[in-house]
Design a protein that fits this description.
alpha+beta, Endonuclease, Chain A, 4-stranded mixed beta sheet, 5 helices
């Protein structure tokens, strides 16, 4: 049975849409680097969207096929752990898995980051796969996996 697309049919606030477009134009260096590797279905054919609005939240990257949100974390995330946790909870209630990856990991170890995303995508896209990744931890410390605000804060 096909997955219900949570993106179509959303009511999008015009201000939020403008903010998402601004974030697409002004991505961080780490976001640009990751997007370069994900765009155009380059990662095993998985389609990612950048700065996607989901329930009024702007997430860095979203893959519908794998119900996956990838958040790229800079230093600001160390100061907003509670907020990030609330967003993670909301997105998890939507059936999404949120993978948090630090800027430094993308900039210094992109092949490992991509392999980790690939593993999660394959596990989540095929529910009968032994790789099912419902609770795969991010490459960061176990206490900081989850999702980030995706609001472009610096």
């Amino acid at each position: 049975m096909p997955k219900v697309n949570i993106i179509t049919g959303q009511k999008i606030d015009p201000g939020k849409l403008a903010r998402a477009k601004e974030l697409r134009r002004n991505m961080t260096p780490a976001e640009k680097r990751l997007w370069s590797a994900l765009r155009g279905d380059k990662l095993d054919g998985f389609h990612f969207r950048r700065q996607q609005i989901i329930d009024g939240l702007i997430v860095d990257f979203y893959c519908h096929q794998a119900d996956l949100v990838v958040e790229v974390d800079g230093p600001v995330h160390e100061k907003q752990i509670e907020y990030d946790g609330q967003r993670t909870h909301h997105l998890a209630n939507r059936g999404l898995f949120v993978l948090r990856i630090r800027n430094e990991e993308i900039m210094h170890n992109l092949p490992e980051v991509l392999e980790h995303i690939r593993t999660v995508c394959h596990g989540r896209a095929n529910p009968i796969s032994p790789l099912r990744a419902d609770r795969v931890e991010g490459l960061t410390s176990p206490t900081r996996h989850g999702e980030g605000p995706g609001e472009g804060s610096s």
